[in-house]
Design goal:
Length: 311
């Protein structure tokens, strides 16, 4: 009998070029479970529906009438599916007794299955996602600037939401009491933080320039990103690196600026959306402040009232 890791790989391979099959496999992990685990798929499956709608999970060599998917998004999604499937096999009696998990992220999923809880779900889910980010930097580098920007935003959002639940004062400061309720993966409220459909174009590949895409971001999403999350990025990534046992995670920031496959010469993009005194007011109200220093590449003050970070 093949070990659990090999069997999980085989199951994922069967749906590799079947986006609907990928979703069914992800949903099955929750739908066929007994007990409280059934309720934990809300955030993950919502994000996956957005991914399916964009087309990033489509085959890389589709039919002539279809657009190819994204090698990076497909690979990260496969890692998540594989970890969950292996963990299910290890805990359902389908694997030989004493079979060890193939990765720490799989062990986290085993912990969640045996004792479901919001904190355990985030630790398992985020460990799989971060492992995918670190494993597939070469695929990310081949994507467009705007797609790489979206990757960074997706990462900081999911790390922030985890912190809202288990380290709410780090994430929300004076509003910490609301964190566990808003971030619970069993409730729809969490989609307000993880739904990138409000922030970015719905199709892949994105054809608009990255600066225009950032400036078109929904106002509420911009307040979330730049008013609440940005001031806390160093502490947030440090917390996540320790919690997920991924010390390399902190290297995905460059002086507090997101830097996953993002060269220092392109830092200016991260200042485009960091505009408006209201964002500083939101940061201060939650007990933080926007601390990015002005960059020589940052956009100058405009008549619209936008200001550079640090002003």
């Amino acid at each position: 009998m093949a070990d659990a890791a090999s069997r999980a790989e085989e199951r994922v391979a069967r749906v590799r070029d079947d986006p609907a099959g990928r979703y069914a496999l992800a949903e099955e992990f929750y739908r066929l479970a007994t007990g409280p685990r059934r309720r934990y798929g809300c955030a993950e499956l919502g994000f996956m529906r957005w991914s399916l709608a964009r087309g990033v999970l489509a085959p890389e060599t589709p039919g002539t009438s279809e657009r190819p998917g994204s090698p990076w998004w497909r690979a990260v999604n496969e890692g998540l599916l594989r970890d969950k499937t292996e963990a299910h096999l290890l805990t359902s009696g389908a694997a030989a007794p004493g079979t060890a998990a193939s990765a720490r992220s799989v062990e986290f999923w085993v912990d969640f299955i045996r004792a479901p809880g919001p904190g355990r779900w985030y630790r398992a889910h985020n460990a799989s996602i971060v492992a995918g980010y670190l494993r597939h930097e070469d695929l990310a580098a081949a994507e467009s600037r705007v797609e790489r920007f979206m990757m960074n935003v997706a990462l900081l959002r999911v790390l922030f939401t985890h912190a809202m639940l288990v380290r709410p004062r780090l994430a929300l400061g004076r509003a910490a009491a609301f964190g566990p309720l808003l971030a619970d993966p069993r409730h729809r409220a969490v989609r307000m933080f993880l739904d990138l459909g409000r922030s970015f174009p719905p199709d892949y590949p994105v054809t608009t320039p990255v600066d225009a895409t950032v400036l078109d971001e929904h106002a509420l999403a911009r307040m979330l990103d730049y008013g609440l999350i940005v001031p806390r990025l160093p502490a947030l990534y440090a917390f996540s690196a320790e919690s997920l046992e991924q010390p390399r995670l902190t290297a995905l920031l460059d002086d507090g600026v997101p830097a996953y496959v993002w060269p220092r010469t392109e830092r200016r993009t991260w200042y485009v959306g960091n505009t408006g005194p209201h964002l500083r007011a939101i940061a201060r109200a939650s007990g933080a402040r926007l601390s990015w220093e002005p960059s020589p590449l940052a956009p100058a003050r405009r008549r619209t009232g936008r200001i550079r970070p640090g002003r």
